[in-house]
Design goal:
Layout (H helix, E strand, L loop, with lengths): L1 H37 L5 H9 L7 H13 L2 H7 L8 E2 L6 H8 L15 H4 L2 E5 L5 E2 L2 E6 L8 H10 L1 H8 L9 E5 L7 E6 L12 H26 L23 H7 L8 E4 L11 H18 L6 E6 L2 H14 L11 H4 L1
Parallel strand pairs: 1-3, 2-8, 4-6, 4-7, 7-8
Antiparallel strand pairs: 5-6
Helix pairs in contact: 1-2, 9-11, 11-12
Bound molecules: ligand AR6.
């Protein structure tokens, strides 16, 4: 008698599991989805679960609305929702400028007078060399070394998506990927920065560390395009709605994505804060294998040239390095591209060979 009852109960449990649990759970989640679509607040855990079950595919309009909501939140509000404390994040005033850093370094190496650029103290004061996790920086924008899908990955890309939460992925999904050397801007959601500039560096896996001219051009394009897109963002958001044309689109947003409610999208496309400070990781030098010192040289040369062309557009450019070897490369090359009047200029890599 007892085994028969047990078998019946087991059968009921299996049947429930197979035929009822999933539909009940899906119905519950669909209910949650309508709450999310109606709400102006976010519940990132629920969104993540909805996405996992392929229930929640946010529309371009809801993505733009979230972008707008998060760009208006204060650092305190974001910290409350995210898993970091205000005391853990670093703002620009916590980071020493390059002249301050160089002074503290007290280099004793022999001075060498060859430099790739003229000394310009105003530009040098905008430069920061900082070692640490880019996701902890409270700057206007951080750069992501992404892949061409823009749908997340490992390295710094993985760290950025993990900290920013699923709404970053939702916005990335609307961008149709990104070509190598190009860049696209999204909001930063649960990160302490406001924007993420996603760029895709070249893959460079030559066994003898030789970099092709093509790869070098693509890496140069990453740094330059990130800054050009920042400039475009700032120019676009400077306009008033009265002077902006009705048909004008936010850079990177195509009209065909602007599906159901054009007026909401148009309204959300304007008045975003400007980007005056930007932090770069060492693009392509991790999983994509670009030789680190050569990459540092491209980064510094390109940023110096861009700042020479646009001396007033940015307040700070942070080279956010992660590894000790990168700190050494930047300490060696910064004096070449951002020479300081009282500071010995380090040898360039060609001088050493
Ligand atoms: N903060 C700052 N820098 C970091 C961090 C961090 N949290 N984490 C790593 N780095 P990588 P790539 C440094 O591999 O070479 C991804 O899967 C790291 O030490 O992140 O351009 C993408 O989806 C290195 O110096 O980027 C692509 O598929 C630098 O960031 C692919 O990797 C870049 O290393 C892109 O490869």
């Amino acid at each position: 008698m007892l085994p028969r009852v047990q078998n019946t109960l087991r059968f009921v449990a299996i049947a429930f599991n197979h035929y009822l649990r999933q539909p009940i759970y899906r119905t519950f989640l669909i209910g949650k989805m309508s709450q999310i679509e109606d709400s102006t607040d976010s519940d990132s855990e629920t969104v993540a679960e909805l996405r996992r079950c392929h229930i929640y595919e946010p529309s371009r309009n809801s993505v733009l609305r979230d972008r707008d909501i998060y760009l208006k939140k204060s650092l305190f509000e974001i910290a409350e929702e995210a898993d970091w404390q205000i005391s853990e994040v670093l703002t620009i005033s916590d980071l020493p400028t390059w002249p301050e850093y160089a002074k503290a370094l007290e280099r004793t190496e022999e001075a060498n007078n060859t430099s790739a650029a003229n000394a310009n103290t105003d530009l040098s004061k905008k430069i920061v060399l900082w070692q640490g996790d880019i996701t902890m920086l409270n700057v206007d924008a951080i750069v992501n070394a992404a892949n061409d899908s823009l749908l997340g990955g490992g390295g710094v890309d993985g760290a950025i998506h993990e900290s920013a939460g699923p709404k970053l992925l939702s916005e990335c999904e609307t961008l149709n990927g990104c070509e190598t050397g190009d860049a696209k801007i999204t909001a930063a959601y649960l990160l302490p920065s406001q924007f993420v500039v996603h760029t895709v560096g070249p893959k460079c896996h030559s066994p003898d560390s030789v970099v092709s001219h093509h790869s070098e051009m693509l890496l140069t394009s990453c740094y330059r395009t990130c800054l050009d897109k920042v400039l475009e963002h700032n120019e676009f958001n400077k306009r008033s709605p009265d002077t902006a044309s009705k048909d004008e689109e936010r850079p990177g947003v195509s009209a065909k994505d602007d599906d159901s409610n054009a007026s909401i999208s148009k309204r959300l496309q304007r008045f975003e804060p400007p980007i005056r400070s930007i932090a770069f990781p060492c693009i392509s030098t991790g999983i994509y294998g670009y030789p680190k010192e050569a990459a540092a040289e491209v980064a510094l040369k390109t940023i110096r040239e861009w700042l020479d062309e646009h001396p007033d557009e940015l307040d700070a450019v942070i080279f956010c390095v992660f590894l000790d070897s990168d700190v050494r490369n930047y300490e060696k090359l910064l004096p070449v591209y951002f020479p300081l009047p009282d500071y010995p200029q380090s040898r360039s890599s060609e001088d050493e060979t």
